[in-house]
Design a protein that fits this description.
Length: about 250
């Protein structure tokens, strides 16, 4: 039984538990998670989140094909007392009237063909770092999305991109689930130079070398309709041909 082309249910559970460390609207620290059912191509997954030492119950309905979305909606509406997460094809025209949070999930097969990267970008791969590096990471984050989240030493390999010996790009590859946690970041003045694609290419290479079949990235939209920053990020990832393109919604 597979989802997202090459993930088993076990793969998804392990990937999702690790994703919960991000504490985003649809993935939080997991106390328990289980497959409720798989009916006609719709997966229903139950999850107990641990939030401030309390359990919050949620249900996730996943429909990979557009013609299964109505079935997923019917199923998830049966769980009115739980937090309801819907994962469906990104291009499905779902109305936002009953949605209160939105994001995307993209996955690449590790052998995917992406855009041609900027070969002038040098990548430094860091498995450990000191305070000097932390200041460099912070500078890139603040010049990319305006705030800073540090890497987690037990989870992340840091990809630091240099152009002309200047650090201009950053990505944290989680080696426990091969998600690019918090996305790929490039200093604003260096956007549209295929620098982010260079980091994506390196992340795919590392994931492939470690035996993973996939690489993923998630993004939480800052507003339901998406901000300019959301649209730029989505445009970058989509241009690099992810194998799976899903939208994620929390229903009211």
């Amino acid at each position: 039984m597979h989802m997202f082309k090459n993930m088993t249910i076990g793969n998804f559970v392990s990937w999702y538990i690790e994703l919960g460390k991000l504490m985003i609207f649809w993935a939080k620290r997991v106390k328990d998670i289980w497959l409720v059912d798989e009916i006609d191509g719709v997966f229903t997954i139950g999850v107990d989140w641990l939030i401030r030492r309390r359990i919050r119950k949620a249900v996730i309905a996943i429909a990979e094909e557009a013609d299964k979305v109505e079935k997923a909606l019917t199923i998830i509406h049966e769980y009115e007392d739980l937090t309801r997460i819907l994962i469906i094809p990104e291009d499905y025209p779902l109305g936002l009237d009953t949605v209160d949070a939105r994001g995307i999930l993209y996955l690449w097969d590790v052998n995917s063909k992406i855009l041609k990267p900027n070969i002038d970008v040098r990548i430094e791969i860091l498995k450990s770092w000191n305070n000097r590096y932390i200041k460099v990471f912070e500078g890139i984050h603040r010049k990319s999305w305006g705030f800073f989240i540090p890497p987690r030493p037990d989870d992340h390999v840091v990809l630091l991109g240099y152009l002309n010996d200047e650090p201009v790009a950053l990505a944290y590859l989680n080696v426990n689930n091969f998600n690019i946690d918090y996305g790929i970041h490039v200093v604003r003045q260096y956007w549209r130079k295929r620098i982010g694609t260079r980091l994506l290419s390196e992340a795919l290479r590392i994931a492939r070398g470690k035996g993973s079949k996939y690489l993923s990235v998630v993004r939480v939209f800052r507003s339901l309709k998406g901000t300019a920053g959301d649209r730029r990020a989505v445009g970058f990832y989509r241009a690099n041909n992810p194998s799976v393109k899903m939208a994620v919604y929390r229903l009211e």
